[in-house]
Amino acid sequence: MEANNLNVLFLSLGEFDDLSQGSVHIDIMKQFAKEHSVYLVCKRERRTEKPTELTEEFGLHVLRVRTGNIKNTNIIEKGLSTVMIEPQFVAAVKKYFREVKFDLVLYTTPPITFADVVKYVKKRDGARSYLMLKDIFPQNSVDIGMISKNGPKGLIYRFFRAKEKELYRLSDHIGCMSKANVQYIITNNPEVDSSVVEECPNMIAAVDMSVDMATRVSVRQKYGIPIDKTVFVYGGNLGKPQGIPFLIRCLSKVNNYQSKHPVDILNKAYILIVGGGTEYGVLEAFMREQQPANMKLISSLPREDYNAMVGSCDVGLIFLDHRFTIPNFPSRMLSYMQAKMPILAVTDPNTDVGEVIVNGRFGWWCESNSTKAVVTSIRDICKEAVEDGVYKMGVNGWNYVNEYYSPDVGYQTIMKHM
């Protein structure tokens, strides 16, 4: 089949309830749909009480497969549901797409349990396969103590490590989030041909999510956020990968310093946390106990309200647990860049996300093992805000995301192999 008329199968663990909204997965699928026929297979968790269903939306064939619960559940149900995805997806492809011959199958991690689906489509149709590697599991869970390589949990590790290796073996090409990810995969998986591993980072459409001054004032007033402060916002998942205990120590140090030094420039900082996850209750307890004057915690908001909230802030925050040995590259940064907001990344030294941010001149970086470094960074940023340096860095981020992270860049990266 000609490269300009492909049947493309996209496998994802996402739910994609609203394809009108942009995301790193939706935007790349829509980019492919401009030239090709795209078939999306995604999950629909049991808690929705909805059946497996095939629809057509925004030029995409969307097959939502009923699965077990994976999000916001206990680790046993999550593990079993994740393992069951393979046979459920294979059965769904056989039933709903038996007459479609796929030329290319795209899939992301998480999860790593797509191997049987990829193997089936490659054998049945002779399709090319491309893995868009978003995280490195199970090592990421080992790093933060969720599973271990030894003892009873070692069985879990070895099972998923075998699945990971099989997925790499089945992939004709592996697109990684950054240079550090490429090097990690090659170094720790010597059986993988280094020539098939390349950079293919998250991609997102060029949608300006910044807001005008009137909206900024209105949103801040609505949520009781000061107009005259430099607002640092953390938006997204509040789970173990984010190193919430360290984040709380940072919040405590900032709060104590602001209380003792009311005229210091650090008092211009206001920290807003918007999100949910397994560690939300820990942060909620901290806020209730300390009642900090210049901090606020808000549970998850509707997408439109969340976007307006983020766009009304000044600096985006990224936190990663210092124990990580794998080079995480959070997609959260893209929404900040869309809002023309610079980023303060507080991470382990193994990821190169800080290097990218600093070299791109759209933010700052410090290690997630020093509360002093974090407080110093926040103080320095407050000084730059007075001189309008924060705004200029936000514009740099907007330019960077359009040049390096657009869906067309990702599309061209993948299609050159076809």
Task: Explain what the structure shows.
- The chain is α/β, with parallel strands linked by helices and 418 residues long.
- The protein has two domains: 7-200, Glycogen Phosphorylase B (Rossmann fold), CATH 3.40.50; 213-403, Glycogen Phosphorylase B (Rossmann fold).
- The protein has 15 helices and 14 strands.
- The chain has helices at 24-33, 75-96, 115-125, 139-143, 152-170, 179-188, 213-222, 244-260, 280-290, 303-311, 332-338, 353-359, 371-386, 389-404, 407-415, and strands spanning 7-11, 37-45, 53-57, 60-67, 104-109, 128-133, 173-176, 197-199, 230-237, 269-276, 295-298, 315-319, 343-347, 363-367.
- It has an eight-stranded mixed β-sheet, sandwiched between helices. A six-stranded parallel β-sheet has the order 11-10-9-12-13-14, sandwiched between helices.
- Helix 1 packs across helix 15 (407-415) and helix 2 (75-96) packs parallel to helix 3.
- The longest helix has 22 residues, at 75-96.
- The radius of gyration is 22 Å and the shape is globular.
- The mean pLDDT is 91.
Report a brief summary of the structure.
By secondary structure, the protein is of the alpha/beta class. It is built from 15 helices and 14 strands. The relative contact order is 0.11.
Number of strands: 14
Please report the number of helical segments: 15
- Give Rg in angstroms: 22 Å
- Helical proportion, percent range: 40-55%
The outline comes out as: globular
The N- and C-terminal alpha carbons lie at a distance of 10 Å
- In the sheet with the most strands, the strands line up as 3-4-2-1-5-6-7-8
State the secondary-structure class. alpha/beta
Low-confidence stretches: none
What's the CATH topology name of the largest domain?
Rossmann fold
The proportion of strand residues reads 15-25%
> Would you tell me the overall average pLDDT?
91
CATH superfamily of the largest domain: Glycogen Phosphorylase B
Q: Major beta sheet, specifics?
A: 8 strands, mixed
